[in-house]
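$ fold --in a.seq
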Amino acid sequence: MLSSIFNTDNWLMRVCEKILDLVTLNLLFLISCLPIVTIGIAKISLYRSLQEVRESRGVRVIRLYVHTFKAEWKHGLALGGIEILVSIICLMNFLLFRGQTAMVFQGMKMLAFGLFFLMIMVMLYAYPLAARFEQSLQELLQTAFVLAGLHFLWTFGMLGFVALLTFLLIGSSWTIVFGGMFFLLAGFSSLVYLQLGILEPIFRKYDNSPQ
């Protein structure tokens, strides 16, 4: 009985291995995000590592994460820079015009909201695409935009899930505390792991397409 419990092919051991990988990658992601400008590189590294974790066992996640972090810094900096810049512009727009009710200011706020929404839609696909395919930045953003539109139901579903999760987490002081603990432990890696379960069947359709 003991041999069956500690057999590495046992379902319990496989689950424990996945949990350990998620916790390790979540910690690496948080550490590598500390200088905010590297958040894009950290995201690509997280997606790339979790793709391997989903497909294989015994992945050396630390080595893979560090290798990807070094190899994908150009795309990561570019995507992260775009994400940070658009977020700052939209946030400043809301802060500057939040008390304004004139039609022109309402239009500017709606424009900022639309831009922010579009950016999130594109980035949901851009980072995992960068982790899976070799493309230029322009091709990457174009492909992400097209996929977000072609698979809008999945895109909207992912956005809705994130919005619902955020709403639940800020519902009370207890959910903020426990939610914060979860995200510090394995929250980010777990969400990406689930997201890849949706995106991988989509990406497989394009694996053999010309890059």
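$ fold --in b.seq
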Amino acid sequence: MGEVVLPRRMFLWCMAVIYLTAFVSLYVQIPGLYGNEGLLPARWQLRYSGKPLVEQLLSSPTLLWLGPRLGLDTHTAMELLCLIGAALSLAATLVEAFRDSVVFFCLWVLYLSMYEVGQVFLYFQWDNLLLETGFLCILVAPLTLIGGSRGVREHDRVTFWLTRWLLFRLMFASGVVKLTSRCPTWWGLTALTYHYETQCIPTPLAWFAHQLPVCWQKLSVVGAFVIEIAVPFLFFSPLRRLRLGAFYLQVLLQVFIILSGNYNFFNLLTVTLCLSLLDDRHVYFWLRKAYKTDNGNDGMKLHCTLWSWLCYLLELVVWALLIVGTIICFDLQLDTAKKGISSRTAFTYHQFNLFLKTVTIPCIWIGVLSLTWEMVTSLFRCACVSGFFKRFWGTVQWTVFAGAAASMFAVSLVPFTFIEYDSNSRLWPGVRQAYEMVDRYQVVNSYGLFRRMTGVGGRPEVVIEGSSDGVTWTEIEFMYKPGNLSAPPPVLTPHQPRLDWQMWFAALGPNTQSPWFTSLMYRLLQGKRDVVELIQSDVSQYPFHQQPPAYLRAHRYRYWFTESKADGSFPERWWRRVYDEEFYPIVHLGNSFLEGMLNQYGLKDKSPPRRLSNTTVAQAVRWVRSQVRGVPAHTLIWTLIACSATFCLLQGLRHKSKDAEKPSDAHKATATDRTENAADGSSSDHHEKSDEQQADEEADKEADSEDEVEEEGEEENEVDEEDEDEERIEKR
């Protein structure tokens, strides 16, 4: 694989942007989710028992234990940590020096601190993925803030390889679990006929995608299986164009998901991991810049030409095998009657399970060989460094980071083999013990989204209704999740409204499976503003903003996308629905059922919260909160991203203009020197110039104009010509 300097820099910048998104998105929701009057107060997760700080950190690794030492309650400390994380990540997007191992370590610790007390609202796979990728950033990023260099290190390719291995685990597992779950919609290739309308928060384009013919929906499922299960093996191909093809296929899948669904920063993070498949040469191609390579002599060129043709043939064979395998496994046939391509799953669960058992261990060996190759080539590069001390220091660094990469790879084998337990049982016991030691820090995780397709009989949706008299009921409309039949689906990526997401999970089962829902009803009856802002950031849009409802209830409905009309025109509404059942009975403050549920789940305060702190830090945190209150989170996030991107773009244009000015300044200086020399020569000559002298001067001028467009390597010839001019003048 070629140099990865530019992809690595792009990866670190994108990670800084994703961290910024995650911290700002969470910060906006902290009061309603984790405040003292929120749904699940974070202070309940921290029991101050008087133990030493080290023991508290070992029991629950979060910096929130330091809150009381700063005079802050848990809620304010969470906001402070989020603000620090957002500030650090914003600085990292603006200044390259802040894309440093120390900064990424701080960002990882800060997000882990939030995760430890986040409870059900932070238990998503993308939170785990962000923590694992963020930990890899500590190894990938340079160490510059303490006097290091931002230059290329010989072990960079080894540490950057870990992101490629993580991408392989993520994509391969995401495809495999869809089939190991035995979900009939995935096996029948009909999952996408339900997916667009049943996903948590669809986009407007999801409505249009839902209208596509069934044959195209099934073909899309086939494409997803190929991209997620077969294509990831190309990540480790020694052939560069195969890796680039895998890159574009993965990005294509993620772009389609982003366009049809609001999955916060998850797909952006996946695209960021895909940067590990690129090299400098391809990034230069994007930038329309020439990539300098050593072409060598004619014999070397002939050898490269032959090798290039051989690579072309091998690549054609691989793509042909991939296409033929897809046709066979999914029985693809041209259906002229329906004017489409018919497809079906042409293998059984037993055959797929046998395939999985066959390839899981070889996948590990492919990773071992690929990592070993990167280590060996990096060690060779260290040995080629000039200077004993540089060579020695580079070898020491290689030893440390190669050991860290090998350890991370070994530990990751445990969650990777969860997809096939026979392979998991064959792992070395020492590897499993190491995994158990680091499991609580979310350094490595198992993945696999959309194992089973929900909402086959219609999208279940919980609708909360409030009343002041118990007779007239008003629906409480959420800002993002479906409710109002006429409201278009929102576009809010990369923000994640965590309450709206949990409402989607709550609708899949009874209310007893979602204890936090009882807390939501309780806080709405109390009229807590922080919780109301989770539903509507503009409180005036909340139907009970003047006075809390006296009664609340919740019903479950079944939602479907509307269909386009026969004449091709669009319907007036986006959704249609039918009543399903009661989800939560009518409750009011003091209601026996509500009180019983609160006591059963431990949702009532057993001890009063800490008194409001008036320290300078606490006042500063509250001031920042007052400035952003009422601003929609996705608007705030995109404003910060746009400002950061604009600043980086202007910075790049400024550097480009400076680089363009340097050669022009050099040409001007050369021309000025020549003019001065000519003036000195003419002042010493008081006689008319002969025709021969004039011809010589004209020839000299033409030579000078040609020299101005020559390369810097011809400067010596210019000096010789100027010496000849001086000799002729002296003769005259």
